[in-house]
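Incident review: delayed structure delivery

Summary: a single-chain prediction request sat in the queue longer than the usual turnaround. Root cause was a stuck worker, restarted by the on-call engineer. No data loss occurred. The affected request and its eventual output are reproduced below so the record is complete for anyone auditing the incident later.

Affected input:
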Amino acid sequence: MYGDQLLWNQKSNISISPANATVLFRKGHFGKYLDLVQPFKVHGMLIYNLLKREIILPKCQKADEIWFGLGKDQARFGREEFCLCSGLNMGTLPECFLEKKEVGEDYIWSRYFEDKRPTVELLKAIFKELTATDGDDALKMAYLLMVAQFFRTDEGRTSVLAWLWPLVEDEKAFAHFSWGTYIFDVTFSWLKNAAEKHVKKLRGKDRREEGREEEKE
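Output delivered after worker restart:
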């Protein structure tokens, strides 16, 4: 069942009819990710070693690209590569989508989380208790869990982001949301910050070594 897959092999008692929630989830933009080998792990050392090989190509490099020198070859990571790898929509983000919106009484927020802090752990716990009669709610929570767990960002590591609650209630808006653009922007910002920190660390090391050389003289 997709409940087990989505929760990265955590024990789950969810039972949803294959005719509704499971099929609908697989038909959506995120359905293909359920077929990844799980648990899915991010190889931090691979990313770190790539960042150490960042190069600057001032004549052709765009603002939303990172280039790496790999031996005699050069490799690029940008929107095009992210789109090809993720298969997610790379359209324009709607204006003011991060603004707080009113939550309706029929929203899953009101039914399950209104008097609670909407943490990812709480969302997991409630998701695991749903039954076949909760198909619509299970589908919405599955979407939220996919965003919170698989597309994790610094701002959404522990709590479900407020702007997601009204979005998940609008099936068409959620399906057409530019997830690729949003996740790429967050990922690219993180990579650039990490690369800049690495450069600063190297510069600090060089200055310390220069200082030692001056002391020896």
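Verification: The chain has one domain: 2-216.
Action items: add queue-age alerting; document worker restart procedure.
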